[in-house]
Amino acid sequence: MPAAVVAAAGWVLRILPRRLSDAIGVDAGHFSPAEVPPPPVVPSAPVRLYIAPVNFAGQGYEWARAAERVDGVGAIDMQYTIKGSFGFPTDNLVPVNVFLHSREWQRRQFQTVSAGFSHVVIEAERSIFGGLYHGNVEREVAALRDAGVAVAMLSHGSDLRLPSRHRTIDRWSPFHEQSWELVPVLEAQARRNFALLRRIGAPVFVSTPDLLLDYPEASWLPLALDPSAWKTANEPLRRSVPVVVHAPSSAVVKGTHLIDSALRRMDAKGRISYHRIEGVPATEIPALYRDADIVLEQFRIGTYSRAAVEGMAAGRIVVAHVHDQVREHVVSATGRQLPVVQATPDTLEQVLADILCRRDYYRSIARDGVEFVAEVHDGRASAAALRPFLLTANRASTRGSTQP
Q: How far is CA 197 from CA 18, 149, 217, in A?
């Protein structure tokens, strides 16, 4: 294989999540001119924020809306995508082959962002201009700073979570799985991204409190959603056989195989009605959660993610394995206890049995969850976390050779 092709393959793999690069292949450069979207419309506000390029769980879009709660801020998010994605809303949707291979799009996008936006948040340490700088995030940051743009970095999870560290603190860690071929890949990725963040020296945000163990200097940027989209008047646990739902985005990470047999056993006995949900578009999840009684989140990582926030917003009883460090940080940062019921794979059946026996008590926890989301995850806390960055101009301009 020619050296140029090998080099191109390397940077494609660096800037894309593994599932995307596997799906399209590193040499799949086919797109039509009609697929090339126009550049984003630059907000007219004094502070103009651009968040890119992954929008995992729709959070780039939600954080953009949260940022607009800050006076004088307008925000746009951008996401590259392939067909079959979950369909979260986004402001600037770009087909992945356009993102990777359209030099016209890359140059036009860079010109629009560097000339029009005052602040940029780069998600998951990934390139935001495709191949313009050959996937080199440091060069992108330098070019943006040269243009007077302030830059911050944002970690979503597996891009920064160090498997070797996580294994030492949790017996349920998915990184104990010797047969999981991604463990060494994720270890190398986390170490590489940690070093990248150190070199760039920009403010760092993390989407969940557990990641503060991987990057202590970071700031927690709470997940955000619109609580009204999840609201329901139906209280949980009013039917004799409660509906229990589990919607794993990654079964090995969420611990699905560790809990499935116990759940199916309880279902067979008629104690619960168990529904495992996979491949469902984001637009259908609110109705599924509102119709459930109990939402099972994850049982291996020790944090709470978008699914837990959604379950709480819907007034459901959310059960997950959450580390004490996460719970303590939530209390410290918000003054509120995290109303997620604690369970591990070996205690889940017992915890569910207790929920069935003490329904009034757990309904009160569900009500606490609605209040918790309304206060911590409706975008206001996210806006407060972003405010110091948004109100600080770029003072780290690095003049040099940064032209693509």
A: 21, 17, 11
